[in-house]
Amino acid sequence: MTSVSAPPTAPESVMLATKKKRVQKVPLFLLIPSIVILLVGMGYPLVWQLITSMQKFGIKQQFGAPADFVWFDNYIALASDPLTWAIVARSLAFCVVTAAITIIIGGLLAVLMKAAGRIGRLILQVSLLLAWSMPIVAAMTVWIWLFDRRRGVVNYLLDMIPGVHMNRFDWLENPLTFFMVACIIVVWMSVPFVAFSIYAGLTQVSDEVLEASQLDGATGWQRLRFIILPMIRPVLMIVLLLQLIWDLRVFAQIKVLQDTGSSASEFDLLGTYIYKLGTGAQDFGMASAVSVFVLLLTIAISWFYVRSLLKEDEN
């Protein structure tokens, strides 16, 4: 005869519930040191930005003159300026396009690393690491040489195609081609991180599951859609979120290209726009207001991912 255990009594149920709550609070306590470090390291700059964004803070204030509070006048001026919204739209379009291209290329390279042999995988990984480790200034110097209108390799190779005339074509003179070059450079610098991240996710997909689905008649597309992608979805989401945030705040690549080509407002993204308002025009109040706006925009972009995490935790 099998014995049936009696249900826990009321005191035992209370003790179990209390123990469960105590265990659930442990991760929260472990997060406290990280939260304190973030508050100390980022709290002061953030508060300073918020205060400065509501002041008339120019070059005189840099030398100790008191700053007058204008409250929300800087934000109103930005919201009523068509140039600001043109730069915001351009920055959003740029970050979405570059992030999407980066995820696609990085995903394909990750699949290639998973399918390649040991030697091929090693060569590909070393190549990606070399591209990833190259300093931004050195990489930008090489890319500017490649797209140089007089001695650039890109123009030389394209000019060899019949019917294509690219001799002395200036890629950095027109906003469209300028951002095409910027997109290529940003994608090239971002692909290694994405490829390695997705490859790490692919290594967690069980080969036995894929073999079983193949025996059941699933095609390669069906295995990718219904097995692989759902299993690496968390990796794809966090990588996409990071790429959107990084590409929205891109600065160094655009600034170096502007120094080589044109620095007109048509070639600005949010990063260079803030730089021009602050360092160029010495209007740190307006620059801080744009910085706060970029912070809020970043939070809005991140909210979709955070909400998805909360839903997964509830389930």
TrEMBL record:
<dbReference type="Pfam" id="PF00528">
    <property type="entry name" value="BPD_transp_1"/>
</dbReference>
<keyword id="KW-0812">Transmembrane</keyword>
<dbReference type="InterPro" id="IPR050809">
    <property type="entry name" value="UgpAE/MalFG_permease"/>
</dbReference>
<feature type="transmembrane region" description="Helical">
    <location>
        <begin position="176"/>
        <end position="202"/>
    </location>
</feature>
<feature type="domain" description="ABC transmembrane type-1">
    <location>
        <begin position="88"/>
        <end position="305"/>
    </location>
</feature>
<comment type="similarity">
    <text>Belongs to the binding-protein-dependent transport system permease family.</text>
</comment>
<dbReference type="InterPro" id="IPR035906">
    <property type="entry name" value="MetI-like_sf"/>
</dbReference>
<feature type="transmembrane region" description="Helical">
    <location>
        <begin position="28"/>
        <end position="47"/>
    </location>
</feature>
<keyword id="KW-0813">Transport</keyword>
<feature type="transmembrane region" description="Helical">
    <location>
        <begin position="284"/>
        <end position="306"/>
    </location>
</feature>
<feature type="transmembrane region" description="Helical">
    <location>
        <begin position="87"/>
        <end position="110"/>
    </location>
</feature>
<protein>
    <submittedName>
        <fullName>N,N'-diacetylchitobiose transport system permease protein</fullName>
    </submittedName>
</protein>
<keyword id="KW-0472">Membrane</keyword>
<dbReference type="InterPro" id="IPR000515">
    <property type="entry name" value="MetI-like"/>
</dbReference>
<feature type="transmembrane region" description="Helical">
    <location>
        <begin position="223"/>
        <end position="246"/>
    </location>
</feature>
<keyword id="KW-1003">Cell membrane</keyword>
<feature type="transmembrane region" description="Helical">
    <location>
        <begin position="122"/>
        <end position="146"/>
    </location>
</feature>
<keyword id="KW-1133">Transmembrane helix</keyword>
<dbReference type="GO" id="GO:0005886">
    <property type="term" value="C:plasma membrane"/>
</dbReference>
<dbReference type="GO" id="GO:0055085">
    <property type="term" value="P:transmembrane transport"/>
</dbReference>
